[in-house]
Design brief:
The complex is a heterodimer of chains A (about 240) and B (about 120). Chain A has about 240 residues and is α/β, with parallel strands linked by helices. Chain A is built from eight helices and eight strands, in the order αααβαβαβαβαββαββ. In chain A, β7 and β8 (about 225-230) form a beta hairpin. The termini of chain A are far apart. Chain B has about 120 residues and is of the alpha+beta class. Chain B is built from one helix and six strands. A six-stranded antiparallel beta sheet of chain B has the order 3-1-2-6-4-5, with no helix packed on it. Classes of the chains: A alpha/beta (about 240), B alpha+beta (about 120). The interface between A and B is medium-sized, with 45 and 21 residues.
Chain lengths: ~240, ~120
């Protein structure tokens, strides 16, 4: 049940057909995890908090540095040197005190990933490297937890929603590509807000639009393209023929 | 030149003026469906045969870009601003990255050369 303050706070989304109090209650009882609270994670965390996802765990092992401030909007000049997850928790809690924000100051590894992710209904990608993404991807496949991949460079971004057992996983593609190519601040915000939208739809029981599809964003010419993608029958992580 | 194209999962493998029969042996049967967009009839066989004007790597990539554009697919390996390979792609000729070739994208392709055009993913955050 929503109380009076929640009915007022969430009024603009409660009046959306097919969302309503039922949808809001589902969000209130949901648990989302954001791995990496940088350019992507700051934006997705902000909107998931504002929309009222009941419990959000944010995971990162970094501290705030000056070059983060062009895009990591939860951090300000005064936060330099502080742990990102602690700063983010404080600000997100001020945005919406009804949401439980759990900060986890750690580096995600093969050893700890299952214990971090276990119990969440959805995992959002906020990392900045392929190795961590593949670790998270494998864990999500194992736990059958939806995983929303997002990645950016410069003015370009990509996004897909991985539903284990149904859609391709990240390892299906033997993905290649370099990091550290530079990021314009608004690019991760665009991709992360689409990740947040996919997460919200998943959590309220609507079909995520990008399950089995790859969205490509090109900010150079402001193009969005969406392509169907198929599972790799030989995927080392999610192939249905793998022994379980 | 004749180009025999085999779409993979995140790449195109292109054999120029093949000197022997080209097969998909060793390649996955499932690929990104949109890679066939300009040649939907070739989807069942998995092998596209087409003619390309010009004889350089650049001509090949430019022609592919044009064909995909007609099919409404955003596929532009040569960045029109830099006139160099766009950072969404990487290209190898016979396993050698194009930047290591003496003439880069203007390298003339020989009969039997295998070009691998890889689409790269985004990893920054």
């Amino acid at each position: 049940m929503l109380d009076q303050s929640e009915l007022i706070r969430y009024n603009r989304q409660l009046i959306i057909p097919d969302f309503g109090e039922e949808g809001q209650n589902k969000l209130k009882n949901a648990h989302a995890i954001i791995i990496g609270i940088g350019g992507l994670g700051c934006s997705s965390a902000t909107y998931l908090t504002a929309v009222g996802v009941g419990h959000i765990t944010i995971v990162d092992f970094d501290t705030v540095e000056l070059p983060d401030l062009n895009r990591q909007i939860l951090y300000w000049q005064e936060d330099i040197g502080e742990k990102k997850v602690i700063v983010a928790q404080k600000k997100l809690s001020k945005l919406n005190p009804l949401v439980q924000i759990t900060p986890v100051f750690t580096k995600v590894t093969e050893e700890n990933v299952l214990s971090i992710i276990k119990g969440a209904q959805v995992v959002l990608d906020g990392t900045d490297n392929v190795a961590t993404r593949l670790i998270v991807n494998s864990a999500c496949v194992k736990l059958k937890t939806p995983y929303i991949y997002g990645g950016v460079s410069r003015l370009r971004g990509m996004l897909t929603t991985i539903i284990p057992g149904k859609t391709p996983c990240l390892a299906c593609f033997h993905p290649e590509g370099a990091g550290g190519l530079g990021v314009l601040g608004v690019t991760p915000a665009i991709i992360a807000n689409l990740q947040a939208l996919e997460a919200i739809k998943l959590l309220i029981g609507h079909s995520p639009a990008l399950a089995g599809k790859l969205l490509l964003f090109n900010g150079d010419d402001m193009k969005f393209q969406v392509y169907d993608i198929k599972r790799n029958e030989s995927c080392p992580v999610c192939s249905p023929t793998l022994p379980r | 030149m004749k180009a025999v194209i085999m779409p993979g999962f995140s790449e195109l493998i292109i054999v120029v003026n093949p000197t022997q029969e080209v097969t998909r042996e060793g390649m996955l049967s499932i690929v990104m469906p949109w890679l066939y967009a300009p040649w939907p009839h070739a989807r069942e066989k998995g092998i596209i045969e087409t003619e390309i004007d010009g004889d350089t790597l650049r001509a090949l990539l430019a022609e592919l870009s044009t064909r995909y554009k007609v099919a409404n697919v955003d596929f532009q390996p040569i960045n029109p601003t830099t006139n160099d390979l766009d950072f969404d792609y990487d290209v190898l000729v016979n396993g050698k990255n194009y930047v290591a070739l003496a003439h880069g994208l203007d390298t003339k392709l020989k009969d039997g050369d295998e070009v691998k055009l890889k689409m790269l993913w985004r990893w920054d955050g």
